[in-house]
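Posting this for the archive.
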Amino acid sequence: MTKPQYRIEGDVLFCPNSVGFYHQDLQEEIVTISSSAARLFSFLIKNKGEIVEREVLLQRVWDDYGLQASNNNLNQCLSTLRRIIKSMGIDKNIIETIPKVGLRIANNVAIEEISIKQEEPEPPRNDKKNFLKKVNITYVLIALVIILAVTTAVHIFHIYQHYYQSNANFTAMIANEAVCEVAATPSVANTAKFASLLTPAVAY
């Protein structure tokens, strides 16, 4: 993919898309400008050598984009462009003012339109996919731990339930035998034995 740019006086590049200027050898150090200033300079470049009236510039740079057009805005953008171009090392008066008429980029200004190949965006890395995979594994492990804990708790509960049920059955069986024994051979000793099974021991 290519994007149009303009090389000014051999070294300085103007990129409308990036709304800024930079030196060819220092592409990372771009000097940004406002979108309005970028549209103004682009329109003047496309009409290089011709005088563009102020009314046309106000219309094409501001009104067509739903912005408030004024001579003050135009003058501010013009001042910004001249200051930045000079700071980039170009002393020539790139943008000429034609009194009471408009602006112009003179024919003797070297401006070349070039196409810079824009690097294709890198394919998205699998960081997000790996993260989701790790999250899924974590959830699975947590679920397994919970299931194991619940299963263990239920198993322990059944063991205790079985243990207490067995004790209760054993006690009932002993009591039943005692009842039968008392009924068969009633005596003071058997009656006391039967009472000891039914009455809990009291510690003194």
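Helices lie at 35-46, 54-61, 71-87, 127-184, 188-198. The radius of gyration is 47 Å.
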